[in-house]
Amino acid sequence: MREEPERICEGGEKKGLSIILVSFNTKELTLRCLENLFREGLPQGTEVLVVDNGSEDGTFEAIGNEFPEVRVFHSEVNLGFARAVNLALSHSRGSYALLLNTDCFPQKGSIERLLLFMERNPGVGIAGGALLHPDGRPQNCFGRAPTLATELLPRGLLEITFPSRYPSKRRPPLGPVSVESVVGAFLMVRRDAWEQVGLMDEGFFLFLEETDWCLRMRKAGWHVYHVPEAKAVHIQGQSMRTNLKAARIEFYRSRYRFFLIHRGKGQLALLFVGLLIKGFVNWIWSAILSWVPGRNTDRWRERHRVDGRILAWHLMGCPRGWGLCPAEGES
Known about the structure:
About 40% of the residues lie in helices and about 20% in strands. By secondary structure, the chain is an alpha/beta fold. Helix 9 packs across helix 11 (about 295-315).
């Protein structure tokens, strides 16, 4: 692990805001994200930390050259999101930390709005802002923690049947609202809260680590809020598009870990069987559509390859090394 020595800050009073980015082979996006942060202006006393998660595209060197004020940590291997965030949190000096994806671009004043909300509401442990597509359409940025219903039934059906429990992103709230969990792409957390509850669970390599964190916060008495006045444009999933099969498998692995921790072995078994059946149906359906001539044929063929890989992973007993997380002994 490397960090330029003059940027290390140990001890001292913890105050201000720490902005944390985790980069994995997204040099151009990371530089754009940093440029956007400094161009739009940051609250006084803000520090920016980047964990370069085993990138091979020169991210570490580029940040050091273009943004010398940023504290950069470089790992020789991909640590996973939770472990990388924990590394940055352990070196941060802010009273609050903003987790920001490298493909996420806060609009002017949004970071200040999120920070002001946290300062005015001392019982809130985590707050997340509104995420938008580049064309302005809203993204899913908060909701209920995973259940058998959310994982096995169509989301649209749940939104129609239980609109109060499963709000639609097409009807975003007008003001701050208490929620079960928020998406970690644009998330602010209070130091007092994470020091009480603990850091992110490093058993989650990628996906659902922030959802687990939100539930642990709520169980400890902290509130989790969505703050729609704080907005960020989110491009989504840029670092995973080159390895979609592994990313999808990692999502399944995180689902199963989440259920084991929060729902118990009985619901985990039901989820596994349900997703296995659902995966087989998806594989058959995508196979049929991949042979139908049309403009979406190539997309369905790629979908069929991904569905097949996920199905094979289940039938092989969910081996660890098939996802993004290295097999035991590789990291």
